[in-house]
Amino acid sequence: MNNLITLYSDFDENYRFLIGKPGKETLFFIAMNPSVATINKWDQTILKSFGLAKILGYDGCIVLNLLPSRQSKSSEIPLSLPASVLKMNIDKIIEIIERNEKDKISIVACWGEKFCENTDMQYSLITILEKIDKLKKKIDWYCLKDTKSGNVLTNGGHPRHLSYLKETTFPEPFNILDYINRIKLPR
Question: What percent of the chain has pLDDT over 90?
Fold first, then answer.
């Protein structure tokens, strides 16, 4: 795919801030953390996100993450990252959303069950939401429905991670503020 972009930390390639291809109509995904996928070697999350974006008629797809720490297994995600790295990740997310020329943006929430175990992820989401709220853009939030069970959220009540869905799935509207209130994150 032409015009793919990635953005890694200047000081450590173990931190990736985004991977994707901007377009006139870009579908954004906010997942848990980046895997070891690169522009030349995609993993299931990247393949599925680009495939879903194309099926839905988007010509661009950008995958962002609540944590920029690259691990292929969720059990390897550190419980804490340096504050400077979290800030840089949040700033890059806001920057790429702000740079999008559209006034209306679609974001698929897909961070999965580990969200409740990691306060850095929770902090990142709250901060991202606060900063997005200050942008003059309408954000349509979605999450992914498990086509086998018919459930939109995990058993723990979190947006499903894209890589764990086995069949074709489509985004369902997701009320991010209800989610934040329901799981009682500090604001």
Answer: 35
